[in-house]
Amino acid sequence: MIQFEAVHKRFPNGTTAVHDLTLEMPEGGVTVLVGSSGCGKTTTLRMINRMVEPTSGTIRVGGKDVLAQDAAELRRSIGYVIQQAGLFPHRTVLDNIATVPLLLGWGRRRARARAAELLETVGLAADTGKRFPHQLSGGQQQRVGVARALAADPPVLLMDEPFGAVDPVVRTQLQDELLRLQKELSKTIVFVTHDIDEAVRLGDRIAIFRTGGHLVQCAPPAELLASPADDFVTDFLGSERELKLLSLTSLKDVPQTRATPLRADEPVSAVSGDGGRWRLVTSAAGRPLGWLDTDALPATGTAGEAPLTPARALRDTDSLLSALNETIASPSGCVARVDADGAVTGVTAREEIHARAAAAHAAAGAGAARTADATRTAHAESPSFATTATPTERPA
Amino acid sequence: MTIDWSWIGDHTDDLTTLSVSHLQAALSAVFLGLLISLPLAVIAHRIRPLRGFLLGLSNVLFTIPSIAIFVLLLPVSGLTRTTTVIGLTIYTLVVLLRNTVEGLDSVPAKTKEAAKAMGTRPLRTLLTVELPLALPVIMAGVRIATVMSISLVSVATYIGDGGLGQLFTDGFQRNFPTPVIAGVVLTLLLALVADALLVALQYVLTPWTRKRGA
Questions:
Q1: Average per-residue pLDDT in chain B?
Q2: Average pLDDT for residues B97-110, to the nearest whole number?
Q3: What was the ipTM of the complex prediction?
Q4: DSSP H helical segments within chain A, as ranges?
Q5: C-alpha of A372 from chain center
Q6: Are residues A191 and A338 in the same domain?
Q7: Chain A closest-CA separation from residue B30 CA (Å)
Q8: pLDDT of A381 strictly over 80
Q9: With A43 labelled, which of A200, A262, A348, B68 sits at a CA distance of 20 to 30 A?
Q10: B110·A90 Cβ contact <8 A
C-alpha cells in the first residue's frame, strides 16, 4: 500500500505542483491518476520513488517512509515504466530488461535468464532479446519497458503515461496485456494518464486532479462516473459519461431468448417470413454470418449466398456498451449472443439492453449516493479537503 | 625532382624507427589529451558556469604558436620527448574537450532519467550510460586529434625531436628531395592507417549505431 499524508510539492519557481495530498493507493490494485497537464499527477507519481522530493508531508510505501530510505535502493525496489519507454539505446533488449537485477548484484547469467523469461511474459519473441531498441516498433519498445520494470519482481509499479506514444490499436492491445498481467501478478500499480477512457479501463480506483495540484475525487470508476463530485469532474468525464459507465458492465446477467437461426446451406425457397423480417444466418458450426432480409429474398440459392447484413456477435464478457452499439447497427433490433467458441446461443432485443443499461446506471447512482453520504460525514469531521478521496477507508 | 630509390633502400631501418617514434609521440599526446579532457569535460558538462571558461581556455591554448609552446616548456622539460608530447597534448585539448562535452550533451535527458529511476547511482550512470552514448561524438574528436597530432609532430624538429619531421630538415639542408618526399608520404600513411583503425575501433565499440543488430 502507498500512503500520501498531507503532501505538498512547491517547485523553486514558486508553482505548487501538489497541494495538501492525502491519498491511499490500495495494495494489489491499479490506482489511476488523471487530469489535464500541469495538474500534478506526474509529480505525485514521481514523489513515490523520489524522482521528485516532496516539500512537506509523508509518503509511505509498504509502511516505510520513502525519505528515510536510500534513494537509489528505493528506486530499485519500485518498477518504473517511463513515457515512450525510455530504453537505453546502447543496450540490447535483454540487457535493458536486466538493468535492475544487475544493479542488485544478481550476476550476469541469472539476470539474463530472468530477462529472457520476462520477454515471454510481455509477449515478445525470444530473438527480440538480441536486438537494440531502435530496431523495435513503438509498441514493442513499450513492452520492453514494462518487462524492464518487472525484472526484479517489485511489489509496486509506477507507470507514467506508458501508452501515450503508440497508436490507438496498439494502445488497446497493451492495455489488455496489462490487465492480463495484473490478473497474474497483482502488483500495486500507480498509473498516470490524461486519457479518461484509459483510466476507466484500467483503474480499480481513479484519482482526478485539478490544476494547482488539488485532488478532486478518488473513487472506483463506476462510482466516479455515476456520481461525479463536482462540475470539474463532470466536465472531465465528458458528455458520454453514462456510456462509459456501461462499458464497465458485462452482458453476463442480461437474459437472452432462444434464436431460430437459418443454416447457411438452407435454400432460400424454404425460408418464410414467419420468424420476423430479419433472420440470423449461421455457418455449419453455428457461428453467426449475418442478418437475412426475408422481404428481399433472391429467387434461388442458399441463405449463405444471399446478401447479408453483418452481425457483430457478443460474448458474455463483452460490455453493455458494445451491446448498445450493436443494437444501433443491427437491422433486426436484436443482438446475436455467442458462447466462448463463437457459436450462437441466442439473441437479446434492443429494448432489453436499453432497460438493462438504465438499470445499471441507476444501480451505480444509488451505490454512489450511499458512499457520498459517508463522504459528507467524513468530510464534516475532517478539515482536509482531500479526505473526500478516501471515504471508504476513513472511519465515519 | 626525382626520387632516389637507392637512398630509400639504404635507409629503411631509419625510416621505420622514425615512423614508430613519430606515431608514438602523436598517440601519447592523444592518450594524455583524453585523460585530461574526460574529467574536465564532465566538469564542464555538469557545472554550466565552468563550461565557457574551460572551452575558452582550450581555444586560447590552441592559438599559441607551437614554437612558443616549446620555448616556454624548455626550462621545464628541456629538449626531450616530454616537451614534444606536452606541446601536442595541449593542442589536442581543443578538439577532445569540446567533442567530449558535446558528446555528453547529446545523451538524451530521458535516458539519463531512466537510469536514475532504475536506481543507478551518478558515477555508474556516467560510466555505463553517458560515456558509452557519448562515444560516437568523442570518437569523432579522437580521430581529428589523432590526424592533427600526426601532422604536427614534425614541428618538434625545432627541439631536435619531430619523428619523420627530421627527414624534412635533412632534405632541405642537403637540397635532396627524396627524404622530404618519403617523410610526407609516410606521415600521410600513418594518418590514414591510424584513422582507419579508429573507425574500426568505433565500429566494434558502438554496435547499437549499426543498421543491423550485432
A1: 91
A2: 94
A3: 0.83
A4: 41-48, 71-76, 93-97, 99-103, 108-121, 138-150, 168-185, 196-202, 221-226, 231-237, 241-246, 320-329, 350-381
A5: 24
A6: no
A7: 25
A8: no
A9: A200
A10: no
